Structures are given as C-alpha cells and as structure tokens.
Amino acid sequence: MRKLICVTLALFAGAAFADANNQTVQGQSLSVKERLQVIELINIAAEKDQVANAEPLDAELLAILKKAESLEESLEESLEETPATEEAE
Amino acid sequence: MPELSDDKTMGRSYRWRWHAGYLAWASVMLLFASPVFAEQYRFDRPAYLGGAELLPNWAETLSRHRSQRVQIDTCLADENLCEGRGLKSLRHILLRAVDLEPERQFSLINRYVNNRHYRRDRSHRQLSAISEEEEVFRSKWSTLLEFLRRGGDCEDYATAKYFMLRELGFPVDDLRVLVSYDRKVRGYHAVLAVKQPDDSIWFLESNGSIIKGRHRGYRYIFAVNEQSVWDHDGAKG
Lengths: 89, 237
Known about the structure:
The structure holds two protein chains of two kinds.
Chain A: H1 2-18, H2 24-27, H3 32-40, H4 59-81
Chain B: H1 6-33, E1 48-51, H2 56-77, H3 87-97, H4 102-114, E2 124-127, E3 134-137, H5 144-150, H6 154-167, E4 175-182, E5 187-195, E6 201-204, E7 210-212, E8 218-224, E9 228-231
Antiparallel strand pairs in B: 1-9, 2-3, 4-5, 4-8, 5-6, 6-7, 8-9
C-alpha cells in the first residue's frame, strides 16, 4: 500500500514539475494588461508538415481546386510578363 | 525439480496480483497526469478577456480586412474586376463552396488555404500599444488578401480560413482563431476552431487534417475573433 501511495505521489509531482514552465499558476495573478502583453509577444510560428492522412477530397472538390490552381497559374504567367513589385515588403 | 508447496504457490500468485494492480494503477495515473492527455476545447469556457480591440495587431488586421473587402466584393460581383494575386481563385472557391454542405466547405477551404505558400514572419521592433515600450514582435497577422498575395505562417492560414468562412456566412460566434502551445513541435501554433451545431469543436489544421472533437497535444493559450479575445492560459475560471 505504501508503494502505491509513493507511486501516486511521484506521478503527481512529476506532472506538476512538467507543467512548471507553462505559466498557469503565475498567470492567475496577472492583470488583463499583463496578460495582453504576454499574448501579443507570443511567436506563433510552428510549421507543420502535411500529414499523409489529410482529409480525403472527392472528385468534385478536387476539380474545384484544380480549376482554382489553373486560375492562379494563368495570373502568374501574366504577372511574369509585367514584373511584380510585391516582394519588396 | 521439487514441487512448490501450496503456500509458495499462493504467495507467488498473490505477489503477481499486486504487481498487476500496481501496473494498472500507474498506467491510469500516467494517462491522466500526462501532458498529452487531450483537453477538450469549448466555446463556453469562461475565459473572456475583452473586445478584439484589446489586441492592437489583431484589431489593425481586422480594420485592414474591412477596407480590403471592397476588392473582394467587387471581384465576387464581376470576374473581370478581380485585380491582384489570388483573387480569381478565391472567387472561384467561394462561389463553388457556397452551395456545398458545411463539412465539404471545411474540406475545400482547408485544402485551398493549406496549399498556399508558407512564409515565416520576420521579427520586427515596434512600439507596443499595450506596454507603450518598444518590443520585438515575431508574429504579424495578415488579412485574407495579404495572405493570398504573399502567403504566410500558421496564424495567417487560420485567419484566411476564418475570413473565408465568414464570407460563406458562418456566424462570428462559431469561429475562433485559436492559438495553442503544441507540445509535439514545441512551439506556438494557430488553428481555426469551428463550433458545430452539437457544440463539438472542429479544428482546421494547417497540416491538412480536420480534427473533430478533442485535440491531443495542445495547451490552449488564447483565441480571437472579430469581436473578442479569450485567454485560456492565464485567466482560468
């Protein structure tokens, strides 16, 4: 029984330490302004690769996307003839 | 080989039962204590922080989008008036999507947006409207038109999906751009969260998937839509 209690306590302690850097506890005492400051500086940049099991699309949706792609390509071709200035951002 | 006495057999069997018990208990505890245990996101969580104007970068993006909607509306009305990269294809997608069922609309828009060019934001120094000090900003929110022209990173993918679903008539109360900490990739990530009629939440991911219900591995940080900001990390309530 003692072992069982020790294992349980160790697990909870482990979970608490694993969560220590997520600001959950600290965050509760922050004011709205302080939270906004934290939020506005978050670097949202996780890049995710396309998964193999992405939502399968039926033929109709694929045809719509293909047509949209061809519209893009035709525009790209016309833009190549007149040099774009947008990349100068 | 000497035979085991009844006492020894019973002792061994008893010990094994205890070991199995420990193992089962530890597994259950591990499952619940594990940071990857799926946390269900709900739109009715009491995490409201304030109006969208509280986040100046987001509010400015909304304002730019409102002024750019003239271009989108003009293009939707007449194909010959679609000026700018991506507008013709956007028109095609929106006009074809309008008659589809919601689930197929999600699939179409998710794939259309995810197919676009990924481009990481450059960090830039800017005077913060909140702290009133110069800060280094690493995320820049784009409007739908800006995203179609230049591509963007995950928050721009989520925002583009948000604006497209709004164009298709989805109510503002059912859509949120949700920023989470992704424990798997160890970084902040944005997805579009859509509330379904049965109150479940679907996540339109930038990796091509649509997660229906629980999202494993995410710690929800904050969410925005045109009207509000919700804080899921600091203001637990």
